[in-house]
From TrEMBL:
Keywords in alphabetical order: Repeat, WD repeat
Alphabetical list of SUPFAM superfamilies matching this protein: WD40 repeat-like
PROSITE patterns to which the protein is assigned, alphabetical: WD_REPEATS_2, WD_REPEATS_REGION
Keyword Repeat assigned: yes
Protein origin, superkingdom: Eukaryota
Any one Pfam family match given in the protein's UniProt record, by short name: WD40
InterPro entries on file: WD40/YVTN_repeat-like_dom_sf, WD40_repeat_dom_sf, WD40_rpt
Phylogenetic classification of the source organism: Eukaryota, Metazoa, Chordata, Craniata, Vertebrata
Ranges: WD repeats: 201-242, 288-324
Protein's UniProt name: Guanine nucleotide-binding protein subunit beta-like protein 1
Native source species: Rangifer tarandus platyrhynchus (Svalbard reindeer)
The keyword Repeat appears for this protein: yes
Length: 324
């Protein structure tokens, strides 16, 4: 008889005090290199957590009580970008203990679509956000807030709303590309400069809720409201091809992330569970059944920590299969 599988581990620790459902997570380095975890909540607060004391250092209130859906830090300053359902993309100054909104971009669409960012230079970034109408994506340059591109499907395409975005640029190319998952379950690869779709594939029968790209392998994964993950590749950085699907026990993936070392993949599930896979083979490694409500978001840090944020107002932090 084969030995029974070992039980899944417990979290390394749990962060409590978000006071509402956690919808966004992002790891970053704080002062003197101490790691921090940022969380965005349903009621509009961004908490900055010390991973040393496991307590919040600050609570930022810039979204008028509306859900914070996406967080990202920029090395300049440092600064924080936070996206909320109040139609604001806020730019925060976090230098020397300051916690002030220094700029904001007014968004055209409320939607559930999280922004994506790409560094263009030491002090310039490109950010993709949901645009006007139901199906448009806008690409802006920061800090100038100049509109770079409007990506709108052809009339009659009926893709529905963009649900998730990933800006990307191959090392061998100067052309920024955008991967967009849509309400109809399809995935499109856009050339941002020409505003044309390079390739489109039907990955899911339900809206694409999350996607992650492994730039080293030109391969990615997406999850939706259905009971399957789709694995796909970017042939020649131009053509999307579905490589396979991985059936899940329960429907509904809210978020999916690949660890920076491209070894493992984590999904956030509507069934309250975090699932961990070996990324190269999609072999299931663990089912983390700690939370008591939908897991809305997952995030990895460069040291291999995994964080999960849930509707139960808690953030679990895990140390699994540490990078070698």
């Amino acid at each position: 008889m084969a030995a029974p599988a070992p039980p899944p581990p417990d979290p390394q620790f749990v962060l409590r005090g978000a006071h509402s459902a956690v919808h966004a997570l992002h790891f970053c380095d704080g002062a003197e290199g101490h790691p921090l975890l940022l969380s965005g909540s349903l009621h509009g607060l961004v908490h900055i957590w010390s991973l040393q004391t496991r307590r919040p250092l600050a609570a930022l209130d810039g979204h008028g009580g509306q859900c914070v859906t996406w967080l990202h830090t920029l090395p300049r300053g440092p600064q924080l970008l936070s996206q909320g359902r109040d139609l604001q993309l806020c730019v925060w100054d976090l230098a020397e203990g300051r916690n002030a909104v220094v700029d904001a971009v007014r968004l055209e669409s409320m939607g559930f679509c999280r922004a994506s960012i790409l560094a263009e230079g030491p002090q310039r970034w490109m950010v993709a956000v949901p645009g006007r109408g139901n199906d448009e994506v806008q690409v802006l340059e920061l800090p100038s807030k100049t509109l770079v591109s409007c990506l709108k499907p052809e009339a009659g395409a009926r893709l529905g709303m963009p649900m998730c975005l990933q800006l990307w640029q191959a090392e061998s190319s100067s052309r920024p590309l955008l991967l967009a998952g849509y309400e109809d379950g399809s995935l499109a690869l856009w050339d941002v400069s020409t505003r044309k779709v390079c390739s489109r594939v039907a990955c899911h029968s339900e809206p694409v809720m999350g996607l992650a790209l492994d730039p080293w392998r030109a391969r990615g994964v997406s999850g939706s409201a259905e009971k399957a993950l789709a694995v796909w590749s970017l042939e020649g950085q131009q053509a999307l091809q579905v490589r396979g699907t991985h059936e899940l026990t329960n429907p509904g993936i809210a978020d999916v992330k690949i660890r920076p070392d491209s070894k493992i993949l984590a999904t956030a599930g509507w069934d309250h569970r975090v699932r961990v896979f070996q990324w190269r083979t999609m072999r299931p490694l663990a089912v983390l059944a700690f939370h008591s409500a939908t897991v809305h978001c997952v995030a990895f840090d460069t040291a291999g920590l995994l964080a999960a944020g849930s509707g139960d107002q808690r953030i679990s932090v895990w140390s699994l299969y540490p990078p070698t």
